[in-house]
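hey so i finally got around to running the thing on that chain from the lab meeting. sorry it took forever, my laptop kept dying and i had to restart like 3 times. anyway pasting the input first so we r on the same page abt which one it is
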Amino acid sequence: MPQFTDSFARRFYYLRLSITDVCNFRCTYCLPDGYRPDSRAQKSFLSRDEIRRVTRAFAASGTEKVRITGGEPSMRRDLTDIIAAINENPQIRQIAMTTNGYRLARDVVRWRNAGLSALNVSIDSLDPVQFHAITGQDKLRQVIAGIDAAFAAGFSQIKVNTVLMRDLNHNRLQQFLDWIRPRPIQLRFIELMETGEGSALFRQHHVSGAVIRDQLLASGWTAQPRQRSAGPAQVFSHTDYRGEIGLIMPYEKDFCVSCNRLRVSALGNLHLCLFGDGGVPLRDLLASDEQQLALQQRIARSLQQKSEGHFLHQGNTGITQNLSFIGG
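ok and heres what got predicted. didnt touch it at all, straight out
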């Protein structure tokens, strides 16, 4: 099978793979009431073997980066085994994970040894009181200790995701810059997005990432080139800083032109766009290794239905009823 490509000649090198819907944080912009299981049916998340098969199929069609997401991935007791299963495939050059950092200090060495090669940790404030107010967890010191443990385990750079919110953290740029000056952290400001349940929060706290970009450019920061399997961030560096700043701005014109990402949910559905409606079921083709070609063919056919762009500007948030960011 050739490289996964859509009808707009975009190639897909990057798979975002959710392995659970469960999360133990109660972030105001995501799950303010905490995780609530679907009472209509007992969910069965993708097994390790199903994950091995779906990532193998993507790799066989050109995918070279897999990001493990959730919910919170560390809520899976078999997370280390999942990382190892993905790592069995040499065509996957990078295995990344986005985490709230809750269990980072305890488990990062095991994850690293299993094959995890990149980390994104969510920190929306460096103030412990504000962090608690945003996440519902008084765990900032624990999360930062986890980042220190990840550096000690051998990670050369760690990305930190910060959802940009007016009057909560958008005016704390200098505090974040002071933190990353001596540390190889890429701090990524992610624009707050309107979701199906968060319209009021969006109207109150949304601010464009261009506000941060203008401040950076005025202070001598320079834009860096984007790699083909990189996420959607615009990255900026400065000679006086070990760290970098990334900006993810989905409301900016032409955001979707360079799309290189597909998403598979924890229930085995392919989502052509994080903001799209519905999904393409893949799970019936994950029962055995012999189904790989059929699986690749279904994905390839589905890509021809991928839209040129999202519809966030029209208020259509698709499946993002609880998710407010696309950090990658």
